[in-house]
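Q: Joint fold for the lines below.
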Amino acid sequence: MRRKSLNTATCPVARSLDVIGDWWTLLIVREAFKGASRFSEFQQGLGLAKNILSSRLRKMLADGILELRPAAAGGSHLEYHLTHKGIQLRLILIALRQWGEDNLFVSGEPMTTFVDSQTGQSLKRLRPIRQDGTEVGFRDLVTKLVVAGEGVD
Amino acid sequence: MRRKSLNTATCPVARSLDVIGDWWTLLIVREAFKGASRFSEFQQGLGLAKNILSSRLRKMLADGILELRPAAAGGSHLEYHLTHKGIQLRLILIALRQWGEDNLFVSGEPMTTFVDSQTGQSLKRLRPIRQDGTEVGFRDLVTKLVVAGEGVD
DNA sequence: CCGTATCCATTCCGATACTG
DNA sequence: CAGTATCGGAATGGATACGG
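A: Joint structure:
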């Protein structure tokens, strides 16, 4: 039987996973951030089967994460580009990356990391902070039911 | 054929997805943050089949995300608790949550959100910042190859 | 209450061949 | 180059029945 769809869940985590919670989607987004925009670039960068890539790209277009745009340099071609919604996934990639850097590598292994292209500086670890700028402790978060669109606090 | 394992990739995003990149693992972590620690609590909170839950819990134990501890209140029972490695997944949950809140709900829908249990304040959006505290623009991130354990910049 | 074992349908994924 | 079509093996997921 098909997995339950989570797209009506009240939990945003569940809905997010329903859209991007598979192995390839976020890696496609990663490639897009690295500059990939064509079918072959994604395929070579990821090494996945073409039919899988095809179906993922189609789903990501439908989900509004990618959009098709004519090639920049006059080519009569269509390219896949991140939408605003897709660009915002960058935070999730950074969170995944930092967790992986801190927990999945042993000292000495080669590893890629994000650096600022201007200064070469690396990034600080992301931290959850309250509206007033103070930091939230590990266990000090509770879920609360609100109505979307009505500013909380 | 089995999906390629990504656990030797140099990209931390790929390795992270190899460990937590399926639909249930992060939801189990979410339940654990909400206080679930027993098999039945996870099962009722998520509504997934018991065999799936069983295999996921086992894998998460093997991956060091959960650990078994004797029940707090003298019960002769074992409970699943997040390890430090598991607790650090909180950032990923927050990133997923904020993306979902911003992109997957229409105004008026009921939605859960994180608030600070002390003050009731909601959280600010996560932001990537450089070591010097300044904010990084959307496209100003490049991946760079480094060696794990050697501090970058 | 805590799982494990089995069964079955669906999906995922890779490989390959093929079209425009 | 950019996909689509098809195949087969493996994994996923739900339901149920069963043992500790």
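Q: Anything notable?
A: The CA atoms of residues 114 and 120 of chain A lie 9 Å apart. The two ends of chain A are 41 Å apart (CA to CA).
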